[in-house]
Amino acid sequence: MTFKTAALAASALLAGGILALAAPLSASAHIDIDPSSAVAGSFTVLNFALPHGCAGSPTTAISIAIPESITNVTPTVNPLWTVAKTETPLATPITDDDGNSITTRIGVVEYTAITPMADGLRTTFDLSLMLPADAAGTILEFPVVQTCVTGSTVWDAHTAPGEAEPAHPAPSIAVTAAVASDEHGAAHSGTTIDGTGTTTEVALTSDAAASAPDVLARVLGVGGLVVGVVGLVLAITARRKHSA
Predict the structure, then answer these.
(1) What residues are paired with 61 via a beta bridge?
(2) What is the pTM of this model?
(3) Per-residue b/e over 61-75, b at no fewer than 16 CB within 10 Å?
(4) The domain that contains 99 carries what CATH number?
């Protein structure tokens, strides 16, 4: 095998490896919510993952804005961070199960680092809440402000269906309808009717939305493997011709 051929093969393999790894790394660079979908009207614990600082600067605080349709939030204690809740008035007071009038809700939950978290480290924040019963078929966004020793990053960009993901998307969760089971135990997708009278298969739509971020990762990963294989084939073919 000549030096030129060996270099070509090495370059192809390197490019394939970079492509295969680039998608998972880029996907994990965002502030994501786990789970990515949950049933309307259900209590759930949302896990917000903070994977890095601001352009290399350590993180000092993270502020999570709560959608207006969610009226009650319980933050989980993180031993390395203090937590504070900011209340905001409700446009229309509501009555709880005990007959009490509720006039405010938790609008923002803010975690402040006891010691700034260095870039390259990862932590999570859990919020327990009830999803709105009438939110099936929608996407709820939780804009986040990440404050660092130097600078800050605002994760509040809306991700429009069918368009490229913005640089700093707001963490979001797809709200699905309850899945009904028949007498045989088979599950069926729930449906919802929007303001135009259009019936939508909510479970299928939400599952598709939840899996959308994985598509790019899969495509780039497969592309990287293909590039690597092509490089090997070229190298082997060149070596055989040289030997002959």
Answers:
(1) 112, 147
(2) 0.66
(3) bbbbbbbeebbebeb
(4) 2.60.40.2230
- What ranges in the chain are assigned the alpha helix state H? 3-27, 202-243
Residue the block writes with tokens 């790019």: 216
Q: Which amino acid is at 43?
A: F
Q: Which backbone phi and psi does 14 adopt, to 5 degrees?
A: -65, -45
Instruction: Give pLDDT tens digits along the chain (244 positions).
Output: 554 544 444 444 444 444 343 334 344 489 999 999 999 999 999 999 999 999 999 999 999 999 999 988 999 999 999 999 999 999 888 888 788 899 999 999 999 999 999 999 999 999 999 999 999 999 999 999 999 999 999 999 999 988 999 999 999 999 999 876 555 554 444 434 343 333 344 343 434 444 444 444 454 554 555 445 445 445 555 555 555 5
Q: Which domain holds residue 182?
A: 3-243
Per the structure, how many domains does the chain have? 1
b (16+ CB within 10 A) / e for 13-49? bebbeebbebbeeebeebbbbeebbbbbeeebebebe
- The dihedral over CA atoms of 233, 234, 240, 244, expressed in degrees to the nearest 10, equals 150
Determine the Cα–Cα distance for residues 78 and 82; give it in Å rounded to an integer. 7
